[in-house]
Amino acid sequence: MASYVESSLTKGERVIYQGRISLWSLLPHIVIGFLLLTLLIGVLFWIVAAIRYFTTELAITNKRVIAKTGLISRTSIEINLSKIESVQVKQSIFGRIFNYGSILVSGGGYPQAPIPGISNPLIFRRAFLDMQEEAEQSKTIPASV
Length: 145
Fold this sequence. Notes:
The chain is α+β, with helices and mostly antiparallel strands. It has helices spanning about 5-10, 25-35, 40-55, 95-100, 120-140; strands at about 15-20, 55-60, 65-70, 75-80, 85-90, 100-105, 110-120. Strands 1-2-3-4 form a four-stranded antiparallel β-sheet. Strands 5-6-7 form a three-stranded antiparallel β-sheet. A hairpin with a 2-residue loop joins strand 2 (about 55-60) and strand 3 (about 65-70). The longest helix has 20 residues, at about 120-140. It is elongated. The N and C termini lie far apart (about 45 Å). The model has no long low-confidence stretch (mean pLDDT about 85).
């Protein structure tokens, strides 16, 4: 079964960078699940963490940023690179220590599109900025005659 990102690529579009949810961002669910394991409710916390981890897809393509979350109820954010005005990274103290955080994408009709709990958020932002700069440069280079 193809992933959401792969199935939504358009003609000529290719994935530049794929991000993942950090297991550290799911640590509260894992710990609470362990503490409540004797009541068997803990397994539900582990299931929630696993569903969030395995059903979240994050990608930067040569044309847009794609984020998809959810198993039964799906939420997706797809914003063209040319429409994005800013990308912010938010990290808590633990996020800085364990290298995870949230990305906030702004612009083009999306006041803020959050992508929470991403692993290596600074690398994700750098990949986005590199791709956006490359796209801008390709627009300014005149075609040879």
